[in-house]
Design brief:
It is a single chain. The protein is of the alpha/beta class. The chain has a single domain, classed as Carbamate kinase. About 30% of the residues lie in helices and about 25% in strands. Strands 5-10-2-1-13-15-16-14 form an 8-stranded mixed beta sheet, with helices on both faces. Helix 2 crosses helix 3 and helix 5 runs parallel beside helix 7.
Length: about 260
Amino acid sequence: MTWVVKVGGAAGNRLAPVLDDLVSRRDYVLVHGGSDEVDRLGAALGRPAEYYTSPSGVTSRKSTPAHLETVVLALAGKLQTTIVAEFAARGVRAVGLSGVDGGLLLARRKEGARAVVDGRVLRVADDWSGTIERADPTLLTTLLGAGYVPVVGPPAATPRGELVNVDADRAAAAVAVAVGATDLLLLTNVSGLRRDPDDAASVIGHVARDRIEEVLPFAAGRMRKKVVAAQEALRGGVGRVVIASTAGPTPVGQALAGNGTVFA
């Protein structure tokens, strides 16, 4: 039985409790984001992040070549190395992988991205973001079979070998489908999908797999990508997806127990 844990990288996420809770567990892949680290490094390099909102309401970064370089430095470099080192300090053997390694994440470039600017829909120019077409499980299953924890993050590559930035939640969904995961846990800085983003008591506890479209209107900003990722994972054969918080001493256990928003 294999499962996938994705830990968010936005401000307010807590990595240490997630790693502590994973120490005694086996047969999982850890996928990470890193938006806060990317923003921090980008600002230090004089490359502040640019965001745009698509006509469907999804908020994304504009991945210019300079921003993509920042992504590689922050995620495939610093953050991934830090996670592997933190695992090592806990006695866990882990291997860091970007989506480029071994053809793990194959994507296509979003050449037709559109943004809503002052009420007008405009084409997003010079953007190197991508949509994942599939994940190759070969390297992951080899590492899992040898007792290693794969730690996976963006970027991905196109069939022509071009680097593209991809959403980590949807990458986690693709990985979960590829390895035949029973569960995908999307751990983030809130306790689940809320009917009211400002009301922690309004978390939606359960969403049937055929009713996901009905809750999409409640998914604002980055939460929308998590709900889309949940939908993609379930369509690909994953048994259950849980959006839950990284807070608390046992965030993985709490998510597995269904504390959050469960899609099944």
